[in-house]
Design brief:
single chain, six-stranded antiparallel beta sheet, mainly beta, seven-stranded antiparallel beta sheet, 42% strand, 22 strands
C-alpha cells in the first residue's frame, strides 16, 4: 500500500504592519487607477523592508586632477536615472478577487507610460514619475489564486530622478480695465493697456535649479516674459480666446497655442515652438528668489509656474 503524505495549505502571511505610519504612500498608475500602498484593505501593500527610491538618487561626480595640486577638483555632477524597488503584497478574499486585483495592479505599471508615486510627510507631498522596468525575476512558492495572496518584487525607474514638490504659481497678472479716452459721450476709443510688473519675483524652495512654465491668455500683444534678465520676446500676438504655454525645461522645451479652457488638464494646442524662434531661457536657482520680467499689451493675463525638485521624498 502506497504511503500517504498529509499536508495543509500554506498559511496566509502574518498581518503586515506598515513601516510608514507617519507617511502616506499612494501609487497613481498611468491608467488613472489609484492605490493606497499603506492599506491592507485595498489589497496592495508596500512591505516595510527593502523599499528603494525614497532617498538620494545615484550621482556621478566629474572631477579632474593635477600633478601639482593635492586631491582633485570638482567639475560638476549628474544625477542618473533613479532605480526604485517595491516589495509588494497583493491580497484577495477569493481566487476571483485576487486575480482581478492582481491584473488591475500590474496593468497600472507600463514600460513607457508614466505613473506617479506620491509620498506625503506632514502636509507636504512629493511626486516621482515612474515606469516599469519589467526585469524582476519571480518564482511562485505557493498557488496565489488558491491562497489569496502573493508577494512580488517590483522594479521601476524614474527617468527624471528628482522628487517633484507642489508647484509654485506666480500670478496670474492682468492689466487694468481700459479707460475711455474721450469720456462719456465720445467715440469708443481706448488707450492701449501696457502693463509691466517690475516687482514680480519667484523663489525656488527645492534642492536643485528648476525651469519654469509660462501661461499667457489672450488677447495680448507685445509680450515680453523673462527670468532674471533672460527675456522671451514673443514674435506674434495671442488672440482673444487663445492660450499660449511655454515650457522652458530642457527636457521638454516647447511652445503650445490652443483654445482657452477652464481646466488646464483639458488644454490641447498646436506646437508653435518653431514660430517662437530662438529665445533666451533661464532657470530658477535652488534656494534663491529671482526677479521676473513681464510686459504685455491687452486685456489678457500672464502666469509663471515652477515645480521644485528635491533629492529625497521627505
Amino acid at each position: 500500500m502506497a504511503p500517504y503524505i498529509l499536508s495543509v495549505p500554506a498559511p496566509l502571511p502574518a498581518p503586515v504592519e506598515s513601516a510608514w505610519q507617519s507617511l502616506s504612500l499612494v501609487w497613481v498608475g498611468w491608467d488613472g487607477s489609484e492605490w493606497d500602498l499603506n492599506s491592507r484593505e485595498q489589497g496592495a501593500m508596500l512591505f516595510r523592508r527593502g523599499v528603494e527610491g525614497l532617498h538620494n538618487p545615484s550621482i556621478t561626480r566629474h572631477t579632474s586632477t593635477s600633478r601639482g595640486v593635492p586631491g582633485n577638483r570638482l567639475r560638476g555632477w549628474r544625477a542618473e536615472a533613479r532605480a526604485v524597488f517595491w516589495p509588494i503584497y497583493l491580497w484577495g478574499d477569493d481566487s476571483e478577487e485576487w486575480r482581478t486585483r492582481h491584473n488591475a495592479f500590474f496593468r497600472s505599471i507600463h514600460p513607457d507610460r508614466e505613473g506617479k508615486w506620491l509620498v506625503t510627510a506632514g502636509t507636504e507631498t512629493r511626486t516621482l514619475r515612474l515606469t516599469g522596468t519589467f526585469d524582476e525575476p519571480h518564482q511562485y512558492d505557493i498557488d496565489p489564486q488558491l491562497h489569496g495572496w502573493a508577494q512580488y518584487g517590483v522594479t521601476l525607474e524614474a527617468a527624471q530622478p528628482f522628487w517633484e514638490g507642489s508647484p509654485v504659481v506666480c500670478g496670474p497678472w492682468q492689466a487694468a480695465n481700459p479707460v475711455d479716452f474721450f469720456g462719456d459721450g465720445g467715440p469708443p476709443f481706448h488707450i492701449s493697456s501696457q502693463s509691466s510688473f517690475d516687482a514680480a519675483a519667484v523663489t525656488n524652495p527645492g534642492d536643485i535649479e528648476t525651469w519654469g512654465k509660462w501661461t499667457a491668455v489672450g488677447p495680448l500683444t507685445d509680450v515680453e516674459l523673462g527670468v532674471d534678465g533672460a527675456v522671451i520676446d514673443l514674435p506674434f500676438a495671442i488672440p482673444d480666446g487663445k492660450t499660449l504655454i511655454i515650457d522652458t525645461s530642457p527636457r521638454n522645451q516647447t511652445a503650445t497655442l490652443g483654445d482657452t479652457v477652464a481646466d488646464p488638464a483639458d488644454f490641447v494646442g498646436e506646437d508653435v515652438t518653431e514660430e517662437l524662434g530662438l529665445q533666451n531661457y533661464a532657470s530658477v536657482p535652488d534656494g534663491a528668489g529671482v526677479p521676473l520680467h513681464i510686459a504685455a499689451t491687452g486685456a489678457g493675463s500672464i502666469q509663471f509656474e515652477i515645480t521644485p525638485l528635491y533629492f529625497r521624498a521627505f
